From TrEMBL:
Binds 1 zinc ion per subunit. One of its GO terms (molecular function) is metalloendopeptidase activity. The active site is at residue 194. InterPro entries: Astacin-like_dom, CUB_dom, MetalloPept_cat_dom_sf, Peptidase_M12A, Peptidase_Metallo, Sperma_CUB_dom_sf. This is Metalloendopeptidase. Keywords: Disulfide bond, Hydrolase, Metal-binding, Metalloprotease, Protease, Zinc. SMART domains: CUB, ZnMc. Residues 337-449 form the CUB domain. Residues 90-298 form the Peptidase M12A domain. The keyword Metal-binding applies. One of its GO terms (biological process) is proteolysis. PROSITE patterns: ASTACIN (PS51864), CUB (PS01180).
Amino acid sequence: MTSAREKMASTRFFIIAAICIPYAVAFVKNQAERDDFNGKAVEFFSGQDKLASQVEVTPSPDCLEGDMLLTQEQKEVYLAMREVTAANRERVRRNAAAAFRVWPNRTLVYQYEAGLSEITKQVFQEAVEVYREKTNIRFLEAVEGIYTGVIQPLIVRQSGQGCFSTVGCPSQTCGGRLNLQEGRCALLGVALHELGHALGRFHEQNRPDRDNHILVIESNILPGYEHNFRVVNMPTVAPYDLQSVMHYSTVAFSRNGYLETIIPYNPRDKAKMGRQHMLSRLDTYTFNVAYDAYDICPADLWDRCSRGGVPNKHCTCDCLPAFEGPFCEIVTHPTACSDYSTGPSGTIYSPGYPEDYPSNTECTYVVECADEEVIELNFPMFLVEGNNCWFDKMSMMTGDLISEVYMDEYCDDILQGNQIVTSSKTSVMVFVSDGWLNFPGFEINYRCVSARG
């Protein structure tokens, strides 16, 4: 039997969905809530939450894997990297190191093509600033008439068809092209991805260890493009990263646009692949390794980083939101309802439980067990406002924290009576409610269990 409150929540969703998005703000009281809702609604209804990854895998002329423009030497080496054997492994590795170089002096030199639109310049510059902030790589604009360096710049253009880039420093004096087709590729996610190629990165889903993390459905791939999914014997320096800015989405090169070509073994990761809103922490780490950012850092920096922390260019650790300190050693308590729980077992309640949770609440819950243990989370009660988790939601990190970027989001009664077992000894949960429609909330029973089963 549907309650009056559930009917009201359902009505709110259908009213908002039925009218134009700009008018939807009338249903949300707080300005920050309106802004957050509008952004999510526009992304959801227009499909823009994964637009960047959909755009860039549209095949560009003369490019391998949709968007990698290779020299003839690079193409020959890259194809050989797909056919590595015990007999040729060392030779292929040497050839790859010579063909795919990083930019010298940790500096990518770039130049805007004459006539490049201000929009394209702005998007490219935004991507540059992300890399500049997160990595030790320097970026130098080669202004015509002023720049006199011997390194040839990467030409940023929009006149070519598609979104693509050369890979790394393609010759002794570098150079190359990065194309952001006007009216199609001027998206931050696209620019981050293509700039990643220009700095020397390949696609994440072609790594030699990818079959441990994803399943490629060849029958769903656009005929003639199956080669884009071939495993490449490339060097790897970080764990596999499903949330990397260099990873394809679930429908990349789909033969009809919606059949999935890549399925992660963990179903909760499906919505996170191909979002490309930012560099993941493992993206940042990989670029910093390639450009020698850690030469001055302690050799055991990885070991010092706790709770999913990843080494950064400052020789400290990039922490998840619930932690801080040089090595993520401090658990934060951002609000009064936030809590830090340790084993062997316990219960977490929503604020005010069993009464309805209050409006405008944000609570962070961290559960931590001992080494060699994981967390068993059981949900005997879970009822949070639904509506695609735009308003109230429980966001959770229950996977390998090192590779987490986008949290899993749950609402409605989807977790009622269910169990989640984490992949690590630490779990982070963030509950948020908005200013309208409150529900009973949740009861979460946790238990520390052996990671060995």
